[in-house]
Design goal:
mainly alpha, 3 helices
Length: about 80
Amino acid sequence: MKPVVTIPDNLFRRAEELAKLEGKSRDRLYTDALCEYVASHSTEAMNRVCDDVSQRDVGFSRRAAEMTLRNVEWESGD
C-alpha cells in the first residue's frame, strides 16, 4: 500500500539522515517506526488492563498463583 502522509520538513530531514546512517530505505525506516509505535500502544493497552484487574482483586491473583505453584512438579537440583 502506498499511503500519502504529510510530515514536517524538519522531521523528514531527520528521518532521511537516520535512514542513511542505518543503511535503510525510507520505506523500511517508516515501516519499522510504525511497527514499533503500534506495538508499544498495544503493550500499553494490555498493561492498563492488567493493572486494572490486579487492582480489583489482588486476592484472586494470589490464590491463583498459590494453586499453580502447588501443582508444579519441582525437580531436585541434586
